[in-house]
Amino acid sequence: MMRWRDIHDSGLFVAACFFALSLLYLAFACESTQSTIPDGSTPDLAIHSVEPHVVLPGTWIRIEGLGFVDENSGSITVELQGLGQQPWLISPERLDDSHIRFQVDSSLFASLGGAGEFQGMLRVRVDYPGGLSQEAEVPISWNLVEQLSPELSYFSGAVAQEVIYLGSSVEARGDGFLLEGEGRTELRLSGTYTPQASTDEIPIESNLLLLDPQSRQELQGPLQASALGIHPGVFHGRILAVNVLESGDEVSGTSLDDVTIELGPTFITRTEPSEASRGQWVDFFGRGFVSNSATVVVRIEGDFTERDGTVVSLRGDDALQVVPEVVSGEQMRYVLRVSPDGQGGVQGLGAKPGVLRADIKPEIYYGNEMEEGFGLENVEFTVLPQKQVIYISYLPGFTDTLREFGLRNVEDRIRDRILQVVNRDYSEFSVEFRTVRPDDYVEYAVIEVGGVD
Predict the structure, then answer these.
(1) How much is the pLDDT for 42?
(2) Helices and strands: H and E segment counts in the chain
(3) Residue 149 and residue 257: Cα distance in Å, rounded?
(4) Which long-range contacts (CB under 8 A, 24 or more apart) does 204-210 make?
C-alpha cells in the first residue's frame, strides 16, 4: 500500500493519488489531451528537392521540404503542370513533416506524354482549416522511360583478400537500377563454387541475390543464402545485373566477369548479458547470421543446475535448440520464454532459476541443407528468478494538472519521489518500476498515469 505519510507536500500527494489509482488496476489509462495554445500562425511551406529525375511507370516521386502537415492540421495536394497544359491534381502520401510522395502509375505516365522529356512545374498546396492556404512550387525536368538497362561496375564482396559472411551487408554500384514500384534489379551469379571442406567444383547457374535499391546508382543489403548457399567456400564466375519490370519483362545489363568471392563460416563470439530472467533479451554476437529463406538455430548442450542443486542434463537428444531473431549479420536476439509442458507446468530456458554451463553452437538450415558453425565452449549463464518490470508512462494530462496546481516547475521532483516510494514499498517483491520504457525486456507491464479525472 502507498505510504502517504512519506509524501511531504500537497503536490506529491496529488501525484501519488493518481499513481495509486493506476496501480490498483495495473492497466488503467486516464484519458487526457495535450494542452495547446494556438497562435494563429501556419508552418512554413517549402520544397527542397524532388527525386528521381528518371521516371518509369510505377516510380514513386519523393518530395522533401517543410510544412507537410498531418490530416488533422490540413490537407495536401500536389499539382503537376506541363508547359501550356492543365494541371494534374494528386493526393500524395504523407511520410512525415518533411517528406511526401506519390506514384506515377501507368495512367499518369501516359498522361504526361509517355516516353520522352517532360518539363513543367510541380506545386504543393496546403489548405488549413478556416480557409487559409499556402503554395510552394519548383520547376521539374523528367526523363520518362519505359525501361532501363542496368550497368554493374562494382560489388563489395568481390574485393580481393576480403571474406564475406551470410547476412552481412554487401553493396553493388553502377547505374540504371530499378527503384520501389518499378520492379526489381536482380544480381545473378553463374560459375563454380568450391566448398571449404572439398576440392570439388559445384556448378552455379543464375543464383539470385536481391539487394535493396538506395538510388539508381546503388544497391545494398544482407548477403542471402540464395546467392552462394550456406557452406563456406569460394565462388568464381560472373555477376550479371538484370532489371525485372513489374510487367515481368526482363532487361539484361552489364556484368562483372572473372569474379572471386570467398564466403566465411558462421560463428558466435560472445553472448550478453551473462544473466537474465524470463522475458528478458539475450544477445548473440558473431558473423554469418542470416534470415529470410535460411534459419539460424543455436544449439545449447551441457548441464543446468537448479537452485536446490538438482542437475538437469541437456545433452544429445535433450539438448536445447533456440531460434533467435536475426537483427543483422552480426547480431541475434532471443527472449527467455517458457511453454506449457503438457502437465500443468512450464518448460524451457527461463522456467526455473539456476546456472547453465554449456557449449553453444550455431546451425544454419537452408532447404534440405544444414551447416554447423563455430560457437563457444563452457559458457556459464545464470537464469534469474522471474521479475515483474513495470513501466510508468506519464500522459500529457499529468503535466497539465500539475500546471493547474502551480507545480509544473517541480514535476521532475514529483516523478522522482513517486519512483522512490513505489520501488521502496515493493522492495520485498521481485518488482521493478521504471520511468523509461525498457529495452532489455520484451515482456513488461505498463501503467499509464494521467491527470484529468
Answers:
(1) 63
(2) 5, 34
(3) 18
(4) 204/228, 204/235, 204/237, 206/240, 209/170, 209/239, 210/184, 210/186
